[in-house]
Structure prediction request, 246 residues.
Amino acid sequence: MNARKAKPPTAPTSHPPLTLVRIRAGLTANALPDMVGTVSGSPVRRQKILSVAARIFSRNGYHETHVSDIIHGARIARGTFYLYFDSKQDILNELIDVFLARLDSAIKKVDLGRNAPPFSQQIESNLSRVLALIESERELASILLDRRVTLDPAMERRVDVFYDSLCKMTRNALIQGVRFGLIRRCDEGLTAHFIVGGLKEIFHRCVVQKRHPTRLKESMSELFQIILQAIGTDRASFARRDIRAK
Prediction:
């Protein structure tokens, strides 16, 4: 009986370094210096890419901006970009999501409790906080308000939910104002959409279209005065009345 030949020992399987596993198809070796030593990526570099993208989106328009523009503006390798984001749509979604979250936190519900500030003061405070955010983040605001930008369905729903929530909050404030005699009886739902729509149009004209961009604060103040004159029961007392008198 012939003796069975022994199989030669198999060479140990070599696994690529962990960094290389994260390299996607089509990336070149130029990406390696930015990727070595990281798996999840640098938060600082991620924020830099977002900031650069927001600036370029605002300047060139979303559809006219290419990934290569963002790569060039951020001074990174193409592989580094894809380490953090799948596409420019991925960046847009994150930019808008972050901005909406900040906008949501800037808008406070109107409190008509015994120790609350005057009604009109709370409204003005909300407008001031929104204005301050838009002034500090004009690039992000212009992206959100630009009607030419096509969002993916999930983000469209996210934006719609935000505006629906804002209209509902405004409607509830109007209902409370009517109950306390600060606002004349009206269709609160329709009036809420008028107020939110007016704000959106002012932001769009001043921020996106850049028509009289320095008049943003003045335009918001004028809109506030129009609202007071239209639905306030007494403009003088509306501006100064303390709810505690109720």
Q: What stands out?
A: The mean pLDDT is 76.
